[in-house]
C-alpha cells in the first residue's frame, strides 16, 4: 500500500509557496549541465517546462508525436488566460482567483496548489507579453481583459478567439530558442510507449519513431509528463485526434497513482454530430448563450425545419426548468438538460442528438449588426462547418467531452508517486477539482511549466548530481523495449477485419452512454462489462495493414485504443465509488428533489487516487483527504 | 453523393509515387474532406488494402497539421479554409477530385500525402523568437503598445505553419511564412531589439533550405487559410534591406 504524502507546506496560505521555495535545494550551474531531463509533450505545459529547464542549464530532451511542437492541442484554446493583475481596478486579487477556482471546482481541489497557480498567474502574463504574444490591448496601449464564465471580475487576457494558439506559439518560440542553443534536443514524431523505471526511479522512456517505426531508448535523471488529458476516451470530443492517454497510462501501470479519473468536463455548446463518419466536435464559445435561446420541439421526433416550427410548439426547456437562470445556467446543468431532452426523443436534426440555439429574438431586438459585432467570427465558423447561416435559422448544438480535471496524482512538487516522474498541465489532477473554470487551463499549464516545476524539480535532482549518465543498455530498458516490441507483434498478428477507429468509436459510445453526463451505479457496472466485451473483440478482430517499420497510423491508433479500454474501466470504477454528485460528476442517485447535484462533503471531500493492480484486476483506492482551511464550503445553487 | 478520387500514393520517401483512382459511393455532403478520407480508409482497411496516409490533428483549422493539394489548390477550392474545414458540399456529385501532397523541394514526401516540413522548423530555429529568459520579463503593462500595432502584429501572428503558401507558389517560396513571424516581432517594441539580426538569419536559412524567391503572384496570400497579407513580405524585404545598410554603418 502506497502512502500518499501531498507535501503541502505549513504556514499561512499566502506564504506557503514563497517559504517553501526558499527551503528547496538547488543544483549548481556546473551540475545542471550533467543532469538530463525528459519532457514528454510540447503543448503549453511541456513547451514552457522544456524551455525554462533549458534556460536553467539542464540537458533537456523534449518529445512530441506531432511534426512540430507548435501543433499541440493547446493551440485550440479559444477564450483566454486568467491572471490576477487587477488591471481593471475591479478589486480582483490572487485570493479571489484562488477562491473562484476552488468554488468552481465544487470544492474538490487542493487549496495550496490552487493558491500557488493563482499566485504565479501574473508572472505568466508578464512573460508571454515579453515573448511577443499579441494579447488584445486598449487604445492607451495597455493590455485589455474581459470577463469569463461565472466570475464577477474581468481577469481574462485574450488574443481574439485564438488565445491558446498565441500562447502556444509564445511557448514554442521560447522552446525554439533553447533548441537553437542546444540545451533542448527536440524529438518530433515520437510516441512514448513505455516508462522505464530503474531501482524505483523514473529513468527513461521507450519511444517509437513514427517515421521509421524504430523503437528507441532514452534515459534521463527525471521524466516530466506534459501529455494532456484523456478526453478522447469519448471518441467524439473537442480534442485533437492525436490526443491520448497512453503516456500517462503507461506511468500508471508502472506505479503512478491516477486521481479522480471520472472528473471530465462536458461542454454544452459544441457543433453536433453531422454525419456517421464524424470523429471530432468543434466548440462554439459559451458566450453565445448570452443572446441565444435554447429550445427543442414539443413534439417527439419532429423532423420539420426549425423555422417551420411555430413559437407555441417550441419548448424553451432551460427557461422552463430554470426560470431564474434561464439559458445561462452553468455548463454542467445545461449539458445534462440537453441530454435529457434528446434522450427523451425531442432532439433536433436527423440524428435527434442536438438542440437549437436561436438568435432570432436577439436579432429582432438588437439588430443583426449588434449580433454580428459580438459573435461575427463564431457565426462564420459555424457556417463553414455546417453550411448553415445562423443569422437565418437557429444553430444546432450538443454537449461534447472537453477537458479532464482528473489525471496523474501529484504532490506539491508536481511529482507523481514514482520518484523522478513529474506530471504537469492537464495530465495532472491538482488544480481544477471536479470542474474547471474557463481560461484557467492556459493559466495552469503555463504556471506549472515556467514557474513551478523548474523550482521543485531542482530539489529532487539535488540528490542526482553524483549519479552520472544513465546507461540505456541496462536490464530495465531492455525489458521495457521488449515489452513494447511484443505488444506491437501482438497487434500485427491479430489479422482481424476491423480498424482501430471503428473500435474507438464503439468504445467512445459506451463511455458516453454509461460514464458521461449522467451516471448511475447500474449503468456504470454495465459500462464496465461492455468495455470488457468490446476489448475481447478488439484483441480478436483488429486489423493493422502494412508493417511496423514504416509510417503506420493504424498501429499508432491501436496503442491508444488498447489503453482507453483500461482508462474507461477506471473511470467507471471511480464514478461508482463516488456516491455523490459534484461538478461534472453527476450521479442519478444523488440529486436534490429539483434535480440538482447533491454533494456530500462529509463523506467525499477527498481525492480518489487509484493504484493499478494488473489488467482487469480491481484497482486499489487511496484517499487524500481535502482540508479547506481558507474557504467556507458552500452549496452551489442556480435557482 | 458519389465521387471519384485520384489520390497520390507513395510508399515512402524513396519510392516513386503515382495517382491511384478510388471511386467512392454514398459520401455525405456533411463530411469534411478528411472525414471523407477516413471513410475511404475504413473501406480500404476492411478490404485489406493499405489506407491513405495523411496528417491531421485538431480538425478545427488551427493546428496547421493538415494540408492537402486538392484540385490544384492548397486546401482546396474555398478561400480562408483549411482542409479539415473544407466540406464535401463544396464539390459536385460525380466530381473527380485530385488529392496530392504539398509539392516543394523543401517539403519531401514521407508517405502518400504526408510531407516533411522540418525545413520550416529550422527557419524558426535560427531566430524565430524573442530572447528573454523566464523570470526576467518586466511588468506586462510597463511597455505600452499601440492598439493598431498590436492588432497588426496579431494579424501576422495567426500563421498556422501549414505550408500552403509554399505549395501555392510557383517558386515554392516560404516568404509569407517567414515574413509573418519577422513582421510580428519587428512591429512590437519587445521584438525590435533583435529585429535586424532576426531577419538576416531567417532569410538566409530560408534560402539554405531550398525555398525559392518570391514569385510576386500573390498566390500565397490568396491560398493562405488565415488570409495573411503579402504586405508582410514587403515589410520583411524592407527590414532585410535596412539590416544590410545598418551593418555597413557599423563597420
Main β sheet profile of chain B: 5 strands, mixed
What is the topology, as strand order, of the major beta sheet of chain B? 2-1-5-3-4
What fold name stands as the CATH topology of the largest domain in chain B? Answer: Fumarate Reductase Iron-sulfur Protein, Chain B, domain 2
Element string of chain B (H = helix, E = strand): EEHEEEEEHHHHHHHH
Oligomer: heterodimer
Brief characterization of the structure:
The complex is a heterodimer of chains A (639) and B (251). Chain A is α+β, with helices and mostly antiparallel strands and 639 residues long.
How would you characterize the overall build of this protein?
The complex is a heterodimer of chains A (639) and B (251). With 639 residues, chain A is an alpha+beta fold. Among the domains of chain A are: 267-401, Flavocytochrome C3, Chain A, domain 1, CATH 3.90.700.10; 475-598, Up-down Bundle (Methane Monooxygenase Hydroxylase, Chain G, domain 1). Chain A has 17 helices and 19 strands. Chain A has helices spanning 16-23, 29-32, 44-56, 94-104, 111-130, 163-181, 246-253, 317-321, 331-343, 360-366, 368-386, 440-461, 475-494, 500-514, 521-541, 553-577, 601-604, and strands spanning 36-40, 59-63, 81-82, 156-157, 184-187, 190-198, 201-209, 215-219, 222-225, 258-259, 264-270, 293-297, 314-315, 355-358, 395-404, 407-408, 421-423, 606-611, 620-625. Chain A is globular, with a radius of gyration of 24 Å. Chain A starts with 15 loop residues before the first helix and ends in a 14-residue tail after the last strand. The mean pLDDT of chain A is 95. With 251 residues, chain B is of the alpha+beta class. Chain B folds into two domains: 3-111, Ubiquitin-like (UB roll) (Roll); 118-132 and 142-250, Alpha-helical ferredoxin (Fumarate Reductase Iron-sulfur Protein, Chain B, domain 2), CATH 1.10.1060.10. Chain B has helices at residues 33-47, 118-127, 147-157, 164-168, 175-187, 189-192, 195-208, 219-223, 231-250, and strands at 3-9, 18-24, 69-70, 73-74, 96-100, 109-111, 114-115. In chain B, a hairpin with a 2-residue loop joins β3 (69-70) and β4 (73-74). In chain B, α7 crosses α9. The radius of gyration of chain B is 21 Å and the shape is elongated. The mean pLDDT of chain B is 96. The chains are: A alpha+beta (639), B alpha+beta (251). Chains A and B meet through α3, α5, α6, α11 and α12 of A and α1, α2 and α3 of B.
Amino acid at each position: 500500500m502506497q502512502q500518499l504524502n501531498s507535501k503541502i507546506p505549513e504556514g499561512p496560505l499566502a506564504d506557503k509557496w514563497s517559504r517553501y521555495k526558499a527551503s528547496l535545494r538547488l543544483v549548481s550551474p556546473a551540475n545542471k549541465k550533467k543532469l538530463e531531463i525528459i519532457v514528454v509533450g510540447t503543448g503549453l505545459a511541456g513547451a514552457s517546462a522544456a524551455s525554462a529547464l533549458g534556460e536553467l542549464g539542464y540537458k533537456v530532451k523534449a518529445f512530441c508525436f506531432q511534426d512540430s511542437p507548435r501543433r499541440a492541442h493547446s493551440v485550440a484554446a479559444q477564450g483566454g488566460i486568467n491572471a490576477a493583475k487587477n488591471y481593471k481596478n475591479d478589486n480582483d486579487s490572487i485570493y479571489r482567483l484562488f477562491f473562484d477556482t476552488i468554488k468552481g471546482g465544487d470544492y474538490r481541489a487542493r487549496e495550496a496548489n490552487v493558491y500557488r497557480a493563482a499566485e504565479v498567474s501574473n508572472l505568466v502574463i508578464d512573460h508571454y507579453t515579453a515573448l511577443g504574444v499579441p494579447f488584445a490591448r486598449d487604445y492607451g496601449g495597455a493590455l485589455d481583459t474581459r470577463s469569463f464564465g461565472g466570475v464577477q471580475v474581468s481577469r481574462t487576457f485574450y488574443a481574439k478567439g485564438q488565445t491558446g494558439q498565441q500562447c502556444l506559439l509564445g511557448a514554442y518560440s521560447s522552446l525554439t530558442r533553447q533548441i537553437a542553443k542546444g540545451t533542448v534536443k527536440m524529438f518530433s514524431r515520437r510516441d512514448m510507449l513505455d516508462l522505464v523505471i530503474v531501482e524505483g526511479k523514473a529513468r527513461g522512456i521507450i519511444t517509437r519513431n513514427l517515421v521509421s517505426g524504430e523503437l528507441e531508448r532514452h534515459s534521463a535523471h527525471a521524466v516530466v509528463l506534459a501529455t494532456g488529458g484523456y478526453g478522447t476516451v469519448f471518441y467524439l470530443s473537442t480534442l485533437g485526434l492525436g490526443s491520448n492517454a497512453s503516456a500517462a497510462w503507461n506511468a500508471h501501470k508502472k506505479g503512478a497513482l491516477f486521481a479522480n479519473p471520472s472528473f471530465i468536463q462536458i461542454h454544452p455548446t459544441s457543433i453536433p454530430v453531422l454525419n456517421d463518419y464524424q470523429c471530432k466536435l468543434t466548440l462554439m464559445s459559451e458566450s453565445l448563450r448570452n443572446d441565444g435561446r435554447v429550445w427543442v420541439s414539443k413534439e417527439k421526433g419532429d423532423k420539420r425545419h426549425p423555422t417551420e416550427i411555430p413559437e407555441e410548439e417550441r419548448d424553451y426547456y432551460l427557461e422552463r426548468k430554470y426560470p431564474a437562470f434561464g439559458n445561462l445556467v452553468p455548463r454542467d446543468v445545461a449539458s445534462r438538460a440537453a441530454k435529457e431532452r434528446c434522450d427523451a426523443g425531442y432532439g433536433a436534426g436527423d440524428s435527434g442528438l442536438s438542440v437549437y440555439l436561436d438568435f432570432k429574438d436577439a436579432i429582432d431586438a438588437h439588430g443583426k449588426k449588434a449580433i454580428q459585432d459580438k459573435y461575427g467570427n463564431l457565426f462564420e465558423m459555424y457556417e463553414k462547418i455546417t453550411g448553415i447561416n445562423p443569422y437565418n435559422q437557429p444553430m444546432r448544438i450538443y454537449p461534447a467531452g472537453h477537458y479532464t480535471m482528473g489525471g496523474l496524482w501529484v504532490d506539491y512538487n508536481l511529482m507523481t508517486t514514482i520518484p523522478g516522474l513529474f506530471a504537469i498541465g492537464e495530465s495532472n489532477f491538482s488544480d481544477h477539482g471536479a470542474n474547471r473554470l474557463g481560461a484557467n487551463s492556459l493559466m495552469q499549464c503555463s504556471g506549472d511549466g515556467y514557474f513551478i516545476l523548474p523550482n521543485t524539480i531542482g530539489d529532487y535532482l539535488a540528490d542526482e548530481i553524483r549519479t552520472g549518465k544513465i546507461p540505456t543498455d541496462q536490464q530495465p530498458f531492455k525489458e521495457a523495449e521488449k515489452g513494447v516490441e511484443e505488444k506491437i507483434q501482438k497487434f500485427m498478428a491479430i489479422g482481424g477485419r476491423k480498424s482501430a477507429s471503428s473500435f474507438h468509436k464503439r468504445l467512445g459510445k459506451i463511455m458516453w452512454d454509461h460514464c458521461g453526463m449522467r451516471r448511475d451505479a447500474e449503468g456504470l457496472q454495465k459500462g464496465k462489462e461492455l468495455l470488457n466485451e468490446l476489448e475481447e473483440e478488439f484483441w480478436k478482430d483488429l486489423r493493422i495493414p502494412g508493417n511496423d517499420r514504416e509510417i503506420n497510423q493504424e498501429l499508432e491508433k491501436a496503442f491508444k485504443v488498447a489503453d482507453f479500454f483500461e482508462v474507461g474501466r477506471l473511470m467507471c470504477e471511480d464514478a461508482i465509488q463516488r456516491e455523490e454528485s459534484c461538478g461534472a460528476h453527476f450521479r442519478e442517485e444523488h440529486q436534490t428533489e429539483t434535480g440538482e447535484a447533491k454533494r456530500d462533503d462529509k463523506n467525499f471531500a477527498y481525492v480518489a487516487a487509484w493504484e493499478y493492480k494488473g489488467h482487469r484486476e480491481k484497482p486499489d483506492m487511496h484517499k487524500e483527504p481535502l482540508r479547506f482551511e481558507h474557504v467556507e464550503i458552500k452549496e452551489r445553487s442556480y435557482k | 453523393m458519389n465521387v471519384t478520387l485520384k489520390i497520390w500514393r507513395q510508399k515512402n520517401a524513396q519510392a516513386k509515387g503515382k495517382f491511384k483512382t478510388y471511386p467512392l459511393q454514398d459520401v455525405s455532403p456533411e463530411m469534411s474532406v478528411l472525414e471523407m478520407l477516413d471513410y475511404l480508409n475504413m473501406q480500404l482497411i476492411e478490404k485489406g488494402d493499405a489506407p491513405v496516409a495523411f496528417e491531421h490533428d485538431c480538425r478545427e483549422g488551427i493546428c496547421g497539421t493538415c494540408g492537402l493539394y486538392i484540385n490544384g489548390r492548397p486546401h482546396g477550392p474555398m478561400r480562408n479554409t483549411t482542409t479539415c474545414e473544407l466540406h464535401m458540399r463544396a464539390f459536385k456529385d460525380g466530381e473527380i477530385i485530385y488529392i496530392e501532397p504539398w509539392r516543394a523541394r523543401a517539403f519531401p514526401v514521407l508517405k502518400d500525402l504526408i510531407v516533411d516540413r522540418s525545413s520550416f522548423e529550422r527557419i524558426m530555429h535560427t531566430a524565430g523568437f524573442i530572447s528573454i529568459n523566464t523570470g526576467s520579463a518586466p511588468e506586462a503593462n510597463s511597455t505600452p503598445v499601440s492598439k493598431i500595432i498590436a492588432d497588426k502584429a496579431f494579424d501576422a501572428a495567426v500563421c498556422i505553419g501549414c505550408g500552403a503558401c509554399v505549395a501555392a507558389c510557383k517558386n515554392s517560396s516560404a516568404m509569407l511564412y517567414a515574413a509573418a513571424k519577422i513582421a510580428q516581432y519587428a512591429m512590437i517594441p519587445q521584438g525590435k531589439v533583435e529585429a535586424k539580426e532576426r531577419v538576416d538569419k531567417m532569410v538566409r536559412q530560408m534560402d539554405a533550405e531550398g525555398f525559392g524567391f518570391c514569385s510576386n503572384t500573390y498566390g500565397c496570400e490568396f491560398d493562405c487559410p488565415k488570409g495573411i497579407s503579402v504586405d508582410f513580405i514587403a515589410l520583411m524585404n524592407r527590414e532585410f534591406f535596412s539590416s544590410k545598410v545598418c551593418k555597413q554603418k557599423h563597420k
